[in-house]
User: What shape does this take?
Amino acid sequence: MAYRAPAGRGYADVAAYFRERIKNGDLAPGDSLPSVGEIREQFGGVAAKTVSRALGVLKSEGLVTSRGALGTVVAKTPMVITGTDRLDRMAKNGKRYAPGETSSGHQVIRRSVADPEICTALELEPHDEAVIRIRVFRQDGSPTSVGVSVYPPHTVSVVPELAEDVRMTDQFDKLYAERTGRQVVKGQRVARARHASQDELDSLEIDAPPQSAVPVVYTTVTFHDDDRPLGYWEDVYIPGAQIPMGN
Assistant: This one.
């Protein structure tokens, strides 16, 4: 596999480059990274110590591991990509899924919304109707996260595909911007912890005793135009998942 990287002088540059390739799905679990010599050449002849420090950072983050004669390879449990990271990845390389990644359990539901967090985020009154889309993301067949997206009626009126029980071929923010001429802005992503619901346990294939409390991390983000909120996304991660944080 051929690699090209921008020149960088420090170990942080090297680590950031390969971290981004893993996050974007360009490098899949089990893929080998270039040799130390190849990385040195790619980054303008940096010292071998610089490359070693960079690889050490990636190992400490659980992203890569040493495999003897195979050299350094991407770990089998890399970062679990969030919905907003997926948007960024598609914008960069057009890839919805990383190698070995799939999704299942797709549902599209019209339902009244009573969750206070969602109602506040979308400026809905309790029990207003919204469109809810649910899917389970998997890596090599195993569930990694449950993605839930909620859209108020004014967003669905512009992007009616959201209410159709089929997988979207384009992201809603792109369609909304094209049809309205308004920029869609992604808000601040926030991470929290709570106990998983039984539906979430079932989706993540966690076999827990009835009424047991299984803690999970979840992230939320709200999308807006210059007038009002357009959508609320929530990702619930399987316990032990490694989640890249940022906006």
Observations:
- The chain has two domains: 11-74, 100-237.
- The first helix runs from residue 11 to 24.
